[in-house]
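Lecture 7 notes: from sequence to structure.

We start with a single chain of 1248 residues. Read the sequence below before looking at the structure.
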Amino acid sequence: MSRTLTIILGVIISVQAIGDVVINEIATTHVARNLRWDENEQAYPGSGPAWWSASFDDSRWLSGNLPMGYSLGSIATDLGSGLRGISPSFYVRKNFEVSTSEAASSAPMVLRINYNDGFIAWINGVEVARGNMGAVKAHIYHNQLSHRASTLGTNTESITLPIASELLTQGKNVIAVQVNNLTLTGNMRLEMSLRIDEPSGIDPQLFSSGGSVTYLPGLREPSAGLVDPVTSSEDPSDWIELYNNGEESVDLGGWTLSDDSMEPLKWSFPAGTTISGGGYLVVLADDPDNPIEGGDFLHTNFKLASGGEYLGLYDGGGNLISEISPKYPKQFPNYSYGMTAGGQWRYFQSPSPGQSNFGDEFVGKADAPDFSQKGGFYDGALAVSLTSMTPGVIIRYTTDGSEPTLENGSDYTLPLSLSPINSRRGHVIRARSFRDGFIASNIKTHTFLINQDPRVRTSPALVYAGDSERALYDPFGVLAINGGSYPGNRWRPSRPSDYNNVINRGRAYERPIHAEYYFQDGTAGFRSDVGLRIAASSYSRPRMQLTQTSSSPWPDSAVQKPSFNLYFRDDYGNPSVSLPLNGPARTFSGYERFRIRAGKNDIRNPFIIDELFRRLSSDMGNGASLGVFNSLYVNGSLKGYYNMVERLREPFFRSLHSNDDGAQWDVLQYEGNDNIAEGDKTAWDDMIRRLNAPTNIQNWDKVLEVADVENMANYYLLNIYGATWDWPHNNWVAAKERSAEGRYRLYVWDAEGAMNNAGNRPVSQEMIRTYILGTSTGQNGQTGTRGELRDLWRGLTRWEEFRLLFADQIQKHLFNGGILDDRDQLNSHIRNRFDGLKDEFEDLLRLIENQAVNTGKVLRWINPAIGRRRYLFGPVREDFRDNDLWPEIAPPAFSQFGGSVSEGYPLLITNENTMLYYTTDGSDPRILGGAPNPDAISQTGGLQEEMLIEEGSIWKHNAIDGDLGTEWRLLGYDDSEWQSGSAPLGYGKIASGGVTVEIETEVNRSPPRQSTSYFRKTFEIDDSAAYLSLSANLLVDGGIVIFVNGMEAFRGSNLPSQTDYSTVPTSDTDDGNEADYRAYPIDPNLLVSGSNIIVIELHNSPGNSDMVLDIGLSGKRAANGNLPFFVNEPVTVKARSFENGKWSAITSSRFTVDSVPATPQNLAIAEILYNPIGANQAEIDAGFDDGDFFEFIRLENFSRENIDLSSVRLTDGIIFDFSESLIRVLGPGEKLLLVKSIDAFRIRFGTD
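Now the structure, written as tokens:
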């Protein structure tokens, strides 16, 4: 028996061997795609030497003859069955012998080669030629397409190489060639020969065409990593190497390997397994899902833990033979861990499965440098010290974003003194520790932004640090474009050396960088190595030029300012990041991918429309990716403003909708021919078939099994309201979990063209027939090639159930203060959202563009007088009703639309003199199929209209006494000295559209005129609570503000939100017509029983040639016989009108009794349990195998009043809407628990 004690960075590891067979070497922690660089500064992935080097072991490769490929000319080795439609690449190595004189020749060599479509050739590890494969020394992955098609056919090309003596050695030499195709289904071919082009005499032929080679089909990256050829895995497996140091073979049948000392019989060697004397046996530790038959390796039922674990070998009697105890140390990418010839365990730079361990060996890994100051924003110069816990290291650092190596960077000796550079530039410091006998440490990166413009600090900052040549720019970076031309504004290659990394997609064009994210207050959201890619559509990629990447900021041009995708991966160190993206006070969420939006079609101003529509979508109850406006620094240089959001891919949908971290999703997005981003379209096609089945209740139930129809209605409604440009044939995302519970939903994406912000879809744009159904000329929906949303819409609108559901969503969101209700523009939800985004972004816009946010398009869109509503509901058009989406029957109105009422409040439910049905148990008054709900209450809901002020009435007016302040708005104001006269009041000629209005009473006619004229009128009502609605019928030329009983009731859109006596309107009228009457709603809650006062201030430019005012005020109240419903407890009331078998849209609202709305002053998150410890065995046995099942949030009412929770929603990280909850009121001092799983919570915390 032998025992070796090895100390690895202070940890004692016992390696014991009893007998001749020992554990000799292991490998785990593979990163098959991460690149490193060989001695010639050429990138390659994986472990061991580069596959093109002379020392690479190709003994496991296949053998064949040239020419090789498929479907092009004569082929000796046909690869079509293994590659066509599967992979675009194959790899070839050929050994050839060189004489002493040939190796010493000063003549150049000539490679005659036929390739299709692209190739790279190396001789003895040095690249000598390439064509159609990007920049010299650029790595091309096995699944990466060539940059350009070959034009050779079966002809050969002669390529002159360097002189023979620079590349060849006497004896064995190797040429390695990689071939990549432009498509997966084209043809491929390689044939070649090599000679020395002597100036005279016979040219030495180093090898001729048609010879034998070793080759590897491009199903994975070629490296020293091990993959069993019978599997479909692209990633190398963990492996364990056994060595028999005896002279006799050993029968291992019945022996076992285990990664658990308490379970020595975990995996057994099959009968007949032997290891010869002095031989090696390699076992893959990959825990396959199914038994692997006919493979080249044995496969254990466990994997090796990269962080270290026990490993033991036992004989057939269960006796310990060899072990690493208590566990092997942490493993590192591309290194193996094995026994030296002297019996010590070390890390090896060159893994050698099946061979003796050799090459550079290391005791451990150096500790990465610690920075005395972390990256971020600083006011004033600072000093930064670098230290490492590994004694004796040399710390190297760079200041240009490149990776520190022993050859690149500077030695750290004294603290780094960092001074301000300018207000848009900072310092990027990357540092790494080195010591002989140790693996070089990880790189630490911090960016120091000193004395930056204060406007940057009002928004979050995203900071990139990366190697300019290898990660960011030419020749290898994500932004690299070289050569080619732009005929028709689309990049085209013209030479084999041309390349464009921007035009291509996929992991092959992802590059590693370091990213930092800082909130407005300077705290760090994350610091992590990540993968960076360009983000752009297939339309945009070939149009990108990126000729000004050194500019700071980047130009606000769609062809110069790129968007990006960020990827968190295990390969880079962090598979995800958890942070409150929208600010330190918000809920933490986990993120795996971000989209960093440049804006493209909204690249300058206002820039915020896409974010506005995603937030509106979320507010409407649909899932949406909510982002931030941020600055972007690249290697310390400010590049501009961006919109950082989570990308709509599987991780986003899992976090939003699923409790299953392993759930898979079908994700569809317009891009290319199939529009499949992830998964497939099987479930989508099934949904479309269900929608086109006969329209009966049974089939509708089948639709509901696979489609979230309320989500779909909201999605279409929002885009119709916004007249979104470049939609629906483009810019849509649909997703469904691949499970029995999964349902398809639609998600807003790239809505930057909404509200006529881009393209040419004005406020009057008809959307349904023109674009969704695609009946206008040139719309893709009409052709059938890209008509997913068209097909879905046609299928949905066949069903009466969907059309009425769509009407319900109209009523919910476009009336009663809903998300899209713009009738009271100044106080509308859209205006509040827009103003909030404007405030978030404007400082950055002023910094970069020296502009304020353009509000004109949005404010026009939501202006009830001239905006979008006029084309959806009239008077210009009635698009919803014209498409059978808005019934002729008006929905009921409530005397108060929800909220807190006093106990016993008499709720009046009214409509336009038809029958109505209402419920108070939360159910729909109409059941599926159209019959009344048997539990609904029915009654007549008629209204009667009363004129409170007739048009042409007598008003008191004052246009001579200057500024009257505010007292004149009140009932008790003394207006006895004012003049009186009948309306219309004003002066000048009022005419428009062929209509002329006669002025009855001249007001403010004679110069010098006042900017503001004042008008007052009193009126009487008996019962103010009886009025359910008020309507002001206005004739006005000027800017009008109406006050009822001292409270503002209406303001024209041609006036700012704050006015004084001198304010003049921005236009003569807010609807463009000075001679017509137009009705506007007024809040009936402004009325009081008895005497009321209505006053008007009319603003007009003193130099204007005319002015006019007339107003009629009418109110609607419940008719006799309409009985109220008395609210005595919290209740949800739902009502529909019904007439001649037809139903109206639903009116639904939640009432609470004697409560107040939830605010930060009365409701608090008192406790959060986030990411708790993992499950114990009892919890696992109960079905809760993840600690996340036990998460909870505790809310507390710390006021002395009942709190109405119906408007409370959790939207970040946790999605919960209290308006749909059974608990909607929280009493004084009461607490509420929101749990992820009630059963899991009870198991861990009990029921008390």
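Confidence is low (pLDDT under 50) at residues 1-11, 777-785. Keep this in mind for problem set 3.
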